Amino acid sequence: MSIISLIIKREFFAKVRNKSFIVMTFLSPLLFVAIAVIVGYLSSIKPDVKRVAIHDETGLFVHDFMVQNKEEESYKYLDLSQIDSQYLKDSITNNGYEGILVIPKTEDVSELEHKIEFISNSSPSVSFIENTQDIIAKKITKINLEKAHLDTLSIKKAQAHVNIAIAKTSGEQGVKGLNEAKIAIGGAFGYLIMMFIIIYGNMVMRSVIEEKTNRIIEIIISSVKPFQLMIGKIIGTSLAGILQFSIWVVIGLSLMFASSAFFGVNVGATTHLPAEVMAHSQTEIVGTAQMYLQELWNLPIAAILIGFVVYFIGGYFLYSSFYAAIGAAVDNQTDSQQFLLPVIMPLMLSVYVGFFSVINDPNSSIAVAFSIFPLTSPIVMLMRIPFGVPLWQIAVSMLLLFGTFLLVVWFAAKIYRVGILMYGKKPSWKELFRWLKY
Amino acid sequence: MNTLLEVNKIVKQYGDYVALNEVSLSVPKGSIYGLLGPNGAGKTSLIRIINQITMPDSGEVILDGEKLQPKHVQYIGYLPEERGLYQSMKVGEQCLYLAQMKGLSKAEAKKQLEYWFDRLGIQGWWNKKIQELSKGMAQKIQFVVCVLHKPKLLIFDEPFSGFDPVNANIIKDEILALKEQGSTIIFSTHRMESVEELCDHIALIHKSNKLIEGKLEDVKRQHKSNSYEVGILTENVEGLMYDITQKFKVSPAHFKSLNNELKLEIQIGNALPNELLNVITQRGQLTHFVEKIPSVHDIFIQTVTENKN
After folding, report:
1. ipTM rounded to 2 decimals
2. CA closest to B85 among chain A residues
3. When comparing pLDDT for A240 and A268, which is higher?
4. A1 at interface of B, judged by CB pairs closer than 8 A
5. More exposed terminus of chain B, fewer Cβ within 10 Å: N or C?
């Protein structure tokens, strides 16, 4: 058996048999599902019904509010137009009202546009205000139309609804709402890579520090090259990580299904939405749904998956080499903070760039630049791929990533080689640089 | 071929600091070779180069007639001064792993391990974790790991540290047994009495340079001061002292004896010991006559202080 596979095997089993690894592996999905269930449960609880007093001096609007009073609505409107508004204002809290809507009497309804007040002790939700404005605006519009002797029915008929279809020059049809799906897919993969790098990169670092503090390192590197040890360690740890991730996915999914069935909580509510919509709607929507599915299948699935694998390997190896070098340079974990910051920064940056620039415009120059820069490309490029990226950009970014990877491994191996034999003091950046020349 | 390991003009620099300055050694086959030197002299740097942990800046190492190369790690067993084991790994598993790294097959490694565990009486430890063992117990495991693959060259850096006298003795006997079986041993230590006891060759490194190398007797011969410890029973101390000081340098000596005699250390320079005997026997009765042979300890201290600058 070759030396590297021997090291990989040891590192793998050392990780997998570790108690905290086992606990983490089986506890994390439980925690995750527990959180999901709690969130699902909480969001399924009906909020308290809030009572809103309507003081309508015009008498024109109160009816439109009263028809809103339905069993399932969270706001209940009460007609208190007969009661003095000043008295109402003073007794909002005493009487348990959320607030009062005061519609003053005016000569002309148009004047009302800026004269209606909602008085409350707490700030009302944006959706409530928008809903209220909407009701009043509709009523005023209707009154205005009637005043002008216009036939509201014909106007309604005359109103056009436009839905622009999105198509690419390649001839593919598109659906507007699909961007969210693309963001979700790219974002999930990018985020996954970041989490993986941080969790298992740290594991690599801890393992290097452990060998140093155990003083076993000198025994080992009298048999193998430090480079072999480093690579074996990185691969072994990543295999343990992949195993852990797979277990998480399997346990997570099965627990999700089990718990949603058990609690009757609709954890994946959004995914069921199209079905419900389809059930009671016209052929037009069915068509849209089909297009949706069609478009999902038209996503560059192969490109996404290949991209994920390539960027995952490239990114993980690149960063773990940094982690290994840092582990070699320091004696304990507290000392590592100073060197970790520059490693974590590009990772955070990639996620921010991904969630701001890429979502805004996947082909903006910032998004392109960061998807080519090797320290951020694994995350940013993955987020861009679902939107379609020119082949040359992917090629350049992958080439740069693997070029940098080789450079960093070489660089890290040098620091590693010197660092693992240095005990006792925390090196400065200057010293690290000097080690490269040893 | 009588030399197993030949070190030729090795230079190693760390930045501006010269750790080894054209150091050459030759370690004869089948010897126990003491590598001595004060802290920071460059011993560990040299040992690391022989183990191919670091590369020399210039110079070469020849092992058994061949230039040192990666395959040679199988022929070397190294017990570093800074040593340890994976704390949470089981003893047997760990030994198998480290043995396989030295190129042994799993079956062969197992066979050897059983032999050694049996020999050292530690069969019951196979499934224990290192963290459950005491320091001395872990040291034993490390010793086994170091010799398991029957290396031609064994390098022990402070092998006795951490052992109680009983276990230190066991290890010492094992080292001697390994020598009997034909292994060559490089032995680095600050415990001079073990050097006296075990080594047949020594080298002394000080401030990155080799100062002394050779057979232990030869080195001692070179460093002896031609002085003798004598005990004399005499009535006429003044007369005796007069006679002796005419010819030789004298200083008081201290040694254990049953008589209340005059104890002297006499440096005879180029004269023969018989001349001194003649002088003494004319005046008194000789009770004690021993040539003063320098100990390794003396040679070490003398050489290091002489080369302070």
Report:
1. 0.79
2. A216
3. A240
4. yes
5. C
